[in-house]
Amino acid sequence: MRLAKREKAFIITAVSIIAAMLLFEFLISPFFEHTDRLRRGIEKAESDYLELMIIKSEYEDYQNNSKGIEQALKKRQSSFRLFSFLEKAAKESQVKYEYMNPSTSKGIGGFQESIVDVSLQSITMDQLKNYLYKIEQPDNLIFIKRISIKTNRKRPGYLDTTLSVLTYQKA
Fold first, then answer.
1. 3-state SS, one letter per residue, for 40-73
2. Could you tell me if 146 and 125 are in contact, meaning their C-beta atoms sit under 8 angstroms apart?
3. What is residue 107's predicted lDDT score, i.e. its pLDDT?
4. Which of 27, 88, 96, 132 is most solvent-facing, going by the fewest CB within 10 Å?
């Protein structure tokens, strides 16, 4: 059976198209998919590396802060108690407190937080200012964690204040 030129050209074209599709499907396409997967893997590895560098930096900061806390605690008297310190500051500032509630929380890395909630009733702005000035001592690791100031309803011009004072101590 002899094929005409036109039929031969049609068969050659069809075989060429099928061969090209098979070549693309089994050689070229997998190659590009593989390179895409490798590129995504490299991008993921780079982002993981950057994240690790950030975590490493944070860890080093925590280590440095921990050393700073340790040095500040060494400077502080071993008999230091936050509750007593706040009572003394209240007397010096001529402030009467309604209550003081001490508490401690679990520590991290050998330190624990010691917190005292203090309620001051019917105090003036100057008394509050003097008291805050006396108690907040970052060099001595004493910080005001939270403060709430309201006007006293019974005595105009006076304030009711609740604050949480925080320090660190060895666990």
1. HHHHHHHHHHHHHHHHHHHHHHHHHHHHHHHHHH
2. no
3. 67
4. 27
Are 120 and 98 a contacting pair, CB within 8 Å?
yes
- Would you state the torsion angle of the CA atoms of residues 79, 80, 86, 90, taken in this order, to the nearest 10 degrees? 60
With a CB cutoff of 8 Å and minimum separation 6, the contacts of 157 are 124
* Domains of the chain by residue range: 1-75, 78-170
pTM, to two decimals: 0.61
Can you name the CATH fold of 78-170? Alpha-Beta Plaits (3.30.70)
Q: Which amino acid is at 162?
A: T
Separation between Cα atoms, residue 39 and residue 36, nearest integer Å:
5
Contact predicate 161/148, CB 8 Å? yes
pLDDT at 108: 67
The string of DSSP letters for 91-107 reads HHTT--EEEEEEEE---
Query: Each residue of 4-39: pLDDT tens digit?
Result: 888 888 899 999 999 999 888 888 888 889 889 999
DSSP code, position 4:
P
pLDDT number for residue 133:
92
**Distance between CA atoms of 47 and 54, rounded to whole angstroms?**
11
Enumerate residues 6+ apart whose C-beta is below 8 A from 85.
135, 142
Per the document, the length of the chain is 171
